[in-house]
Amino acid sequence: MKRIFPLMAALLALQACDGFKTDIYEDDLALPRAEESADTLFLSINLEYVAQGPSREATERMNQAILVQAFDLEEGEGSVEETAARYREGLIDQYLNEGDFSWEDHLQGSFTQKYKGYRNYTFSYYNFRGGAHGIQTVSQIVFDGKSGEVLSEGDFLADGYEKPVAELLREAVRRSMTAEAPELVELVMMDAIVPNGNFSVGKNGMEWFFQPYEAGPYALGIVSATLGWDQLKPYLK
Q1: 3 state SS of 51
Q2: What is the pTM of this model?
Q3: Are 23 and 78 in contact (CB under 8 A)?
Q4: Which residues have CB under 8 Å from 72's CB, separation 6+?
């Protein structure tokens, strides 16, 4: 079942004040592997994309970047509907030919906070291919709100930021985990806590995200750390 529909009127009205509007692509599927089989492919996609940006070029840049990240592409090609349909059909084919038991594939992407001239976009992805557990990941894109360009850490931080910012991130992880889950602190691979390009920006500073297994065992889940703008001030451009 595939649907394309506008966001709630209130949200659209809020976004429209700066000429920015979005729609959502949604797809839900439950496909049994065979007749009367309990083994099923479960797919859900809820993907927000730009319906109207500050320019046609900015709209296209944002949407193509969203598609690249959402569907793990080398480059965006085609509309949201076309790209999502190709992903759907490819996943169905893979499941019917290679899958055992039930599979789950759940993707959600949405614009989150807007900060100054920047727009943050967050992906949440869960997949299960059998075994003890599935994998949940969170990924970020930071857009220049005017041009639609994807921004990197280097667009905010001056040359040579990597080492000192990594030290700040490690201390932030130690501090937050000691307060929330002290028994897990020793499991963190601190050498892996470095600026990794998976970040968002907001009034509280820059927040980095580390996926399961990126900075330690699965038990850690997704690790995140925020550095305030005051902390980052010596390294800002």
Answers
A1: strand
A2: 0.90
A3: no
A4: none
